[in-house]
């Protein structure tokens, strides 16, 4: 009784502060928590007339349908492999670039490089799709024209042959994100105490030794955190990259279909609400488990690097 | 020799590498621009080239001839970006500030409520159905303002750590003793002290609204409500799209014959990204410091 009245008192005292959080709480409830409850659609035979509550239960039929088809395997494999390559390649390239930016002593030039490398990151995937199209258009694209002019080879129809797309998408993804990631790593390199380097120079350590023995170990926490976040999202894909850049071309689906594009197409093009919800639910659950496992693993190694 | 290598070759190799990187970052933009000012003949002969043999502004003339489609799409983009950014900034700051106060009741519960949305989600389909069936947002301007874009859990946490580290508790305490209400403290003390983080989050919001095509693709069927990004999406796959609405079919055939097809598409791309590219030199500083402060504070 006493506790209750105390809580009441403190709620009264803090009523304005609590009220300030209300719009945000309501928003997250609508945008995130209601859809979480909406995953029951994965266990229903949804139709628009009966709505979420009225539609008949379907048990695990949607999941059976999903996992009995070839699609489940292909989209999981594509999403996983693309992300795996993205994570490794982007990490290596961006740490490399960050280390090199750190070698540039002129502040103005360093700034100039940083803001140019960041430019690809701020544009939308629609614009990226235009840029890629200007290179890969079959008749007039720059790549085909150069292939013909320099090597005398035939024009390649990039937008109808799926085998090229794993390479194209890896390049496009690196082009868009390496600059951004390298700036994040560079920021944590600047944060390193200069005394370490001074001491190392006095001891006669080479630049290479300083990089591998001082810089990299000291930015390892941020590398761990960023990689941890990326790994836990290994079954989430950048929808724009896989939908806009291949221009939603049917012929390219075998190598460009990921869980997110699959869910979108199943919902919009086939109208299969139950099955597409099931696919999305499968993705969410795997990601949730992965982040818990990855975080627990990092906690064991070094508690301070863990996310929570 | 080795001394010379270390002193001169090393740094110049680094600069060569960075010039290559700079060119790789910029060349796609330059190519699209060059295509947009090429003449059709030059394209037929040489394809898309960084050095067109003939310059022509026919594509831009064609676009500006009937600019109403593009102007409307820009109107939608500007409206949603302005309204969305302001509301989003307000909700984010109002949400983050109380959480930065160590004495707030239910602080841990509310923080977990936010954090959990970053770990688990219901997926795109239930999210879509929530907005379409429960809130009837299909084909409204609000559909390009509210879903997903209005509040980012990450930004709330970013702002909370800024408030926690930059607003001295003593200032808030003495204002409370002077009898100022919490709302007054927030608007007249906290906000003016937090302009850097406000600028950063405001910039993040502006960019995500400006670049959005996903909500438009999902929620909007009416061409008059398309924003510029989605108009660009439509035109990329079907160049005739630009002509279809405002004209009768006879006119379309006529216009299509006259249209510099190869270059119009790229001219539209330039018209679509120009504002961002022109604004970039002015905001890049804040953007870089925004992402780096996020990285350092984690």
Automatic annotation (TrEMBL), chain A:
Transmembrane feature ranges: 16-34, 80-101, 113-136, 164-187, 214-235, 280-298
Record keywords: Cell membrane, Membrane, Transmembrane, Transmembrane helix, Transport
Record-level GO cellular component terms: plasma membrane
Membrane-related topology note: Multi-pass membrane protein
Broad class of where this protein is predominantly found: membrane
Subcellular location: Cell membrane
Domain ABC transmembrane type-1: 76-294
InterPro entries found in the cross-reference section: ABC_transporter_permease, MetI-like, MetI-like_sf
UniProt record, GO biological process: transmembrane transport
Entry-linked Pfam families: BPD_transp_1 (PF00528)
Family assignment from sequence similarity: Belongs to the binding-protein-dependent transport system permease family.
Protein's recorded name: ABC transporter permease subunit
UniProt source species: Paenibacillus dendrobii
TrEMBL record, chain B:
Transmembrane segments: 12-35, 76-98, 110-129, 141-163, 183-204, 264-283
Lipid bilayer topology: Multi-pass membrane protein
Subcellular location, record wording: Cell membrane
Pfam families: BPD_transp_1 (PF00528)
UniProt keyword annotation of Transmembrane present: yes
Taxonomic superkingdom: Bacteria
GO terms of biological process kind: transmembrane transport
Domain ABC transmembrane type-1: 74-283
Cellular component aspect of the GO annotation: plasma membrane
Alphabetical list of SUPFAM superfamilies matching this protein: MetI-like
Keywords carried by this UniProt record: Cell membrane, Membrane, Transmembrane, Transmembrane helix, Transport
Sequence similarity: Belongs to the binding-protein-dependent transport system permease family.
Designated name of the protein: ABC transporter permease subunit
């Amino acid at each position: 009784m006493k506790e209750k009245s105390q809580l009441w008192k403190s709620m009264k005292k803090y009523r304005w502060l609590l009220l300030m959080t209300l719009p945000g709480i309501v928003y997250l409830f609508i945008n995130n928590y209601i859809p979480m409850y909406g995953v029951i659609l994965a266990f229903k035979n949804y139709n628009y007339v009966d709505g979420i509550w009225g539609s008949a239960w379907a048990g695990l039929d949607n999941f059976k349908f999903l996992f009995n088809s070839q699609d489940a395997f292909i989209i999981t494999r594509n999403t996983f492999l693309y992300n795996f390559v993205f994570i490794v390649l982007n990490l290596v390239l961006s740490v490399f670039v960050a280390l090199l930016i750190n070698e540039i002593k002129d502040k103005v030039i360093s700034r100039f490089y940083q803001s140019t490398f960041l430019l690809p990151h701020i544009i939308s995937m629609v614009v990226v799709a235009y840029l890629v199209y200007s290179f890969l258009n079959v008749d007039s694209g720059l790549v085909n024209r150069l292939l013909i002019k320099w090597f005398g080879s035939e024009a390649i129809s990039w937008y109808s042959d799926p085998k090229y797309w794993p390479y194209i998408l890896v390049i496009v993804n690196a082009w868009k994100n390496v600059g951004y990631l390298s700036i994040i790593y560079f920021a944590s390199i600047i944060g390193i105490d200069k005394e370490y380097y001074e001491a190392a120079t006095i001891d006669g350590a080479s630049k290479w030794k300083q990089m591998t023995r001082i810089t990299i170990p000291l930015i390892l926490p941020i590398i761990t955190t960023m990689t941890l976040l990326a790994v836990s999202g290994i079954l989430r894909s950048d929808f724009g990259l896989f939908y806009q850049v291949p221009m939603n071309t049917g012929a390219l689906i075998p190598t460009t279909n990921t869980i997110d594009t699959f869910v979108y197409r199943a919902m919009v093009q086939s109208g299969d609400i139950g099955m597409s919800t099931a696919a999305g639910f499968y993705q969410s659950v795997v990601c949730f488990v992965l982040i818990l496992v990855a975080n627990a693993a990092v906690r064991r190694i070094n508690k301070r690097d863990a996310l929570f | 020799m080795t001394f010379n290598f270390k002193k001169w070759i090393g740094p110049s190799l680094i600069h060569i590498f960075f010039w290559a990187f700079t060119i790789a970052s910029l060349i796609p933009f330059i190519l699209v621009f060059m295509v947009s000012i090429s003449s059709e003949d030059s394209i037929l002969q040489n394809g898309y080239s960084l050095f067109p043999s003939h310059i022509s502004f026919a594509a831009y003339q064609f676009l500006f001839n009937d600019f109403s489609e593009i102007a409307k799409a820009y109107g939608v983009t500007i409206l949603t970006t302005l309204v969305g950014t302001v509301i989003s900034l307000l909700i984010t700051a109002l949400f983050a500030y109380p959480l930065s106060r160590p004495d707030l009741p239910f602080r841990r519960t509310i923080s977990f409520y936010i954090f959990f949305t970053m770990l688990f989600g219901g997926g795109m389909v239930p999210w879509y159905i929530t907005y379409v069936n429960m809130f009837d947002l299909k084909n409204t301007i609000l559909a390009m303002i509210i879903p997903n874009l209005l509040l980012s859990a990450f930004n709330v946490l970013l702002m909370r750590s800024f408030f926690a580290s930059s607003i001295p508790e003593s200032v808030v305490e003495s204002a409370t003793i002077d009898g100022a209400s919490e709302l007054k403290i927030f608007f007249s003390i906290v906000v003016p002290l937090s302009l850097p983080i406000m600028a950063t989050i405001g910039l993040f919001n502006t960019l995500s609204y400006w670049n959005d095509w996903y909500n438009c693709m999902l929620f909007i069927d009416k061409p008059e409500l398309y924003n510029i990004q989605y108009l660009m999406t439509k035109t990329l796959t079907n160049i005739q799209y630009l002509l279809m609405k405002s004209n009768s079919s006879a006119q379309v055939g006529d216009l299509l014959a006259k249209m510099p097809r190869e270059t119009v598409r790229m001219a539209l791309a330039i018209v679509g990204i120009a504002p961002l590219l022109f604004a970039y030199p002015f905001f890049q500083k804040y953007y870089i410091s925004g992402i780096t402060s996020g990285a350092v504070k984690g």
